[in-house]
Amino acid sequence: MTIKLFELSGSDPERRFSPYCWAIRMALAHKGLDVQTIPWRFMDRDVLAPSGQTKVPVLVHGDKWLSESWDIANYLEQTFPDRPTLFGGPQGTALSKFYCNFAVVMASQAIRMILVDIYDHLTETDKPYFRESREQRFGMSLEQVVADRESKLQPFRDGLMPLRMTLKQQEFFGGDQPLYADYALFGVFQWARCISPFELLAADDPVALWRTRLLNAFNGLAQSAPGYD
Amino acid sequence: MTIKLFELSGSDPERRFSPYCWAIRMALAHKGLDVQTIPWRFMDRDVLAPSGQTKVPVLVHGDKWLSESWDIANYLEQTFPDRPTLFGGPQGTALSKFYCNFAVVMASQAIRMILVDIYDHLTETDKPYFRESREQRFGMSLEQVVADRESKLQPFRDGLMPLRMTLKQQEFFGGDQPLYADYALFGVFQWARCISPFELLAADDPVALWRTRLLNAFNGLAQSAPGYD
Lengths: 229, 229
Hints:
The structure is a homodimer. Chain A has 2 domains: 3-79, Glutaredoxin; 89-220, Glutathione S-transferase Yfyf (Class Pi), Chain A, domain 2 (Up-down Bundle). Chain A is 52% helix and 8% strand. The first copy, chain A, is built from 9 helices and 4 strands. In chain A, strand 1 (3-8), helix 1 (19-30) and strand 2 form a beta-alpha-beta unit. The first copy, chain A, is globular.
């Protein structure tokens, strides 16, 4: 039964840049599941109608339409229990939620450095929607949001301290092997890497070394995606 | 076999104010284990000699001396596997490490608001050591560290956003029930509560409501400890 995943894409359909879609792509690879990915743009509302959603990720498995990355990851865990676990049982599942929220906060900070880079990669159809909705959200122009972005880099990196400390103590947040918690956080860095040349991490940061391990995971699935290095 | 726990104390021996000792106290209660707590001050170096440590928590179980809260929690999990789990298996253990590091970062921020309150509660014997060592660490006087502490409150609370988001979604970081991850974070708030009247959380913050649930846990173990409300 084919699994399909709608992924946010730029004008280049191979450029996929949703943090949450990337978390699911990695989760699917972790489970050893084949997936047919479908490029999706903000204006492609109609194709998601069966999910009741207007945003991705949306995963289709047989006649099931699933949305929200957390719900999709839990669906994969429950539907394919004999494959490598994404959570490690009920306690591990509960403990993973905080990582997902930490990722949301990271993304909300990182977007203030890469917002214009996102805009620049969109289709001409998506651009007006994106500019209008984001300028309304931020209360200023896209260009104003990312102005002086270099000044936002150190506070962003400072906020990663608990990640950094942990990755000095173990290879992955999941221990010797990554779990969904790793993929949720990694999605933010992979999103940024796919859409922006602006480097969020210092090269010798333990967080960057962990990112490299995940870029190389699953035969370089994330590394080989169109992006910046 | 009696379990003994050395806990950092002020001039009032009942005032216990180490975040990491509190994490272990809660972990012991979670396991349903009786404990004999022993007040310890910074200058009581000799009594810890068998542990090879100069700081608490130090736990003594039979002829075993254990130190470092993370190692103690793992010892309790392994030694009492039939009692309620603190981690939920190997993945849950690995996932808990980030919480402990998040707690360390929270404590490093909170101490800049409560450092003088700590000093004020110490024995006269501990005070000179504490002032000298902390003033060297911070590169300024204790009083300078906490100057204008009100201005540090909002950044501290902002940094709790991923905790707050999670606690809107579930009762505890461990899910329906607390796990060691909860106790590691709670220790920071209980440390502050025991030593300082300076309130770190807004009353309606979901983090404050979670703190109240843990203050009330185990028949009010933490609530009944000498502190501020």
